[in-house]
User: Fold this.
Amino acid sequence: MYASRNKRSAIIIFGLASLSACSNGEDSASELAANIETAEGMINAFYSFDASKLQPFLSAAGDAEVSILGYQAWAEGGNYIVMERVPCISESENVIACGITVQDDPVVALETGFNVTDTFHITFTDSTITDVDTSSNDQPIYYEARRWVEANLPEVIEGPCKRTDGIRDTPGDCARAMTDGYKQFMAVRFK
Assistant:
C-alpha cells in the first residue's frame, strides 16, 4: 500500500514538475494538483459506496450527477472490488482520467478470469467538476451476455433493470439480476 502511495506521489510530482516547466508556470501546476486531488477524492467517495460522500463532488456536473450516482449503486450491487488503482492523470487541459481495475460479480459470472478497468474522465471548469464520463475495456462476451439477457429475460429488463428517462430505477438490484442472468447465459452457452 505504501509503495503504491509513494509511486503515486512520485508520478504526480513528476507530472507537476513537467507541467510547470512547459506551461503557464506555477498557477497551472497548482490548479492541476488541486484538480487531481479533487478527482482522487471523488474516486474515494465513489468506491465508499456512500452516495452522500459522492454527491458533493457532482453537484455542478449536470446530467452526469444522476448517471454517476446510479453507476455507484450498480457498482455496489455488483460487489465491485478494487484490484488496482493507478494515480489519476491529466488527460487534457481540463480533464483528469482515473483508471481503476475492478473485480465484479457480473464479469465473474462470465468465468473469463478477466478484471475490467473502468476509467473516469473528470472534466473541470474553474476547479469544479462539471462533467464525468466513464469508459471500460469490457470483453465482447460481456456485451453478448447482456444482449442475451435482454432477449431472453424480459422480466429482468422490465423489473430491476427498468429505466425511467434513461436512468435505471434500481441499479443495485439490476446489477444483481444481471449477474444471475449472466450465469444463465453461461449455462445455456456451454451446455
User: Anything to note?
Assistant: The chain has one domain: 2-138.
